[in-house]
Design a protein that fits this description.
homodimer, alpha+beta, Thiol Ester Dehydrase, Chain A, 3 domains, twelve-stranded antiparallel β-sheet, 8 helices, globular, HotDog_dom_sf (chains A, B), Acyl-ACP_TE_C (chains A, B), acyl carrier activity (chains A, B), fatty acid biosynthesis (chains A, B)
Chain lengths: ~350, ~350
């Protein structure tokens, strides 16, 4: 086993050292007063993905800590990722998390022969699909902020695998978001749920780590999300169709898009004046390019600023159910204080 | 005037130098055999945006070359940016270009008091809006590829400002895409077109550079895009509505979304078997959250694999017109060779 790569950095304002570096062949102007030094382990360049490409570039570099059990990756918030509150949209933050999660599954951190994409799973036609997602948002970053995402496997039972991500502002350490996603196993041909076979579970167990925080505590009441009945819905948005660019290479809708549709089906006054502080989502059904959906939402009777949601096909088949919790938008708060 | 930042890099496999660097205070393992050295000009750290944030992070670092007249930025293609051809979507590539263009306008490369966002423009309520975009695509990158975008001002007349971008694969130098965008000036209050005032043009002239390639040659026939008549349309997609996340902080639809809608209104067999090799788009009207649109397309009678497009509001008002040129998808080509 090749150990994971290590990155180390050093820095100096010693002009003598600058002269040493000058000898490397770099032409330095006389006014340089600071040096940044980065050291790579040449024997083990970071693998960027399962196509075996390597990265020597100064961006979005993956780190593997805890002996390769945690994938860390930085994302710079781009202007087109902002929503009307001038903050990174939830969709953007979940996309970052998805990218890191896929790298955890597919990168060399979890070996190809091992847990992520095993021969054993292939021979049984088993694949992982997302079943449930639980998210808490502390703050939303702005344009130019750098979001550090760390993702690891935090749980494994015979029914599901949990992956956890923690997002923080890489400059300030401010907490941004916490995501726990549960993956279940289905048969690729029949699309039916499968128990995780004992051999696969055993080969996965060593990867599960109580790193950083344990998974969010499971409240039984929350685990069983109630289904929103149509007659209790305050708002129904009809005729939602996936766009061409919402489809992934498997021609399925990217699961992050479900969240966008659920938010789209929330009353405009909520989206405009509030920001999402937490949600739980259960995926019930895949959808593809010809699906036409409806997004229903209704205010909770019990908790203030809580909503229940149902995403369904036009024939009534359930695609996802969700619960969202909102707080006053920090932009609105700011404006009303001025 | 503060000179733009310079970045220089050096590299060595000389173990003596490693020892020199070790003295900087970094703990190096004994098996390190390569060093990467990066030198920043301490007096002028790179500004990341007009909020004055600086970046010391190893990602998506902006470079200013040609004395600050060109902004360069790298983007790593993320998995969720792929389309069904397993290549970065056009939408993703145009978003990269937009991000770099905004940095050209807003970064310290074009001073705040100068050309991009001048006091003079503010006092006259003048703003830049995009009027026309001309794109040529050589190849589409894959997951994990690093796209280098370089953007500069390539032309300025009393009617419009042209910004040009060239996208290449940062590892191989392969050409990816070329974009020329024309910006026109409108009055923010009346939304009417304005000539570019002589003083503003004069202050902008020094920024215009014949860098890399000159703007795409202007073919008069192409300049005047014909409007697609409804009775010549082969395909009409109705009921397109912007989603919440399509809106920017000004509550307008991000202009890249127009391209997505135009592609969405192209027959499915075209999108599925072909990839876009070039397009020209003229923006006619802004749209917002309550707009409902139609996307029309029709095959050209003159050029094979060429289509004309019209994006309009349901009341018939024109939003954009476009011309697209397609070639057999490289994925399809590949599959048919196997």
């Amino acid at each position: 086993m090749v150990p994971p790569s290590k990155l180390m950095r050093g820095r100096s304002i010693d002009n003598n050292n600058a002269i040493n570096l000058y000898n490397f062949g770099t032409s330095l102007p006389s006014h340089v007063t600071r040096l940044q030094v980065k050291v790579d382990n040449f024997q083990d360049p970071l693998k960027i993905n399962n196509f075996g490409k390597t990265v020597n570039h100064e961006l979005e570099k993956r780190r593997f800590t805890q002996d390769g059990y945690v994938v860390g990756q930085n994302f710079l918030v781009r202007l087109y990722e902002l929503d009307i509150h001038e903050k990174a949209s939830l969709e953007a933050l979940l996309n970052y998390t998805q990218e890191t999660g896929l790298n955890l599954f597919q990168s060399s951190g979890l070996r190809v022969e091992g847990f992520g994409v095993s021969k054993e799973m292939n021979s049984r036609n088993l694949i992982w699909v997302i079943g449930r997602m639980q998210v808490e948002v502390d703050s939303y970053p702005s344009w130019g902020d750098i979001v550090q995402v760390e993702t690891w496997c935090s749980g494994l039972t015979k029914h599901c695998l949990t992956c956890s991500s923690r997002l923080t502002d890489a400059n300030t350490g401010t907490k941004i978001m916490r995501v726990d996603s549960e993956f279940v196993m289905i048969n690729e041909k029949t699309r039916r749920l499968s128990r995780i076979p004992e051999e696969i579970k055993a080969s996965g167990d060593p990867y599960v780590k109580d790193y950083l925080d344990p998974p969010l505590s499971v409240d039984d009441k929350l685990r069983k999300l109630q289904k929103l009945d149509e007659d209790k819905a305050d708002y129904i948005l009809r005729g939602i169709k996936p766009l061409w660019f919402d489809l992934d290479p498997n021609q399925h809708v990217n699961n992050v898009k479900y969240i966008s549709w659920i938010l789209e089906g929330t009353p405009e006054a909520v989206r405009e004046n509030y920001e999402l502080s937490a949600f739980t989502l259960e995926y019930r059904r895949e959808c593809g390019r010809n699906s036409v959906l409806q997004s229903l939402s209704g205010a909770s009777n019990e908790v203030p600023n809580e909503y229940y949601h149902l995403l369904r096909l036009e024939n009534g088949n359930e695609v996802a159910r969700a619960r969202t919790l909102w707080r006053k938008s920090s932009k609105i708060e700011c404006n009303s204080m001025n």
